[in-house]
């Protein structure tokens, strides 16, 4: 019997790892896993340049018949755990651009809805006929439902009443100030009991909820690199839609501008209309947002972009300066996904920060909390 640890290394190394097994044949299930991995990773051009050949690869000969995409999806769903399946599907569509995963009806019926598949649908929906588009919509709806459920909870918490810095004499468990309570009661710690006795508990106050209306304008760069930001902006706008004290706008832009506000309450429909790719004219989008503002001191413009300006950077800086001077809060967000790992033009972002914009990265939940705190003041 082959050592399971050695078999795992054999799956990683492919055919060059046969020596580690003493050239013994793989167990049936391990061989099936190896074939599934080879179907995907055997197409890596780097292997050929390095003279590496994996067993069962994309070469001539009398080996096993080539798997179809449908067969491959069926195999990996049987052979691998869920996390691995999602990684394999993501590599298939993003690394090797196997478009039939999201454009072939037979494949779409089997694929597991996840955010990688959603990104792939948004990037390739222009290739789909109406029948395939209907099937692809299932993926969009399933993933958006998951994201909405998660973010809606964060938004409800934020708008239940964001915590203020001042203390409160109203004692509610959800407003308990743990840090101050511990700090101010350390004198009552009893080492012999290893317990801290609370003499005076402290609580936060909550921001008032009877508030005047604010405008929140989300400007989203829809260039190809910003797919995650487009997805999460659509979900964020939908969660903010209809909240007391908030009027939400969602505007997508590249070199053109598309006002998607009429579809904000239906993020699935909204995303099916977005066209990813193209150039970028950030200044033009910010100019458009400026025209939407009704009460400057009760408006938030959240610019979600990588800050790589394809138009006039001077125009962008000038418009942002004008918004800040009139009292509008301008946020420059380099990312709006769950990881918030920003990749952006730091020089351009710094120029906007220098004229008063707040530049950084926020997850959707953090943005909702920021809006709640501003609206409740």
TrEMBL record:
What is the top-level taxon of the source organism? Answer: Bacteria
UniProt-listed InterPro entries: LolB, Uncharacterised_CoxE, VWF_A, vWFA_dom_sf
Q: Start and end of every VWFA domain?
A: 213-372
Q: Where is the signal peptide?
A: none
- CDD domains reported in the protein's UniProt record: VWA_YIEM_type
In its UniProt entry, what is this protein called?
A: VWA containing CoxE family protein
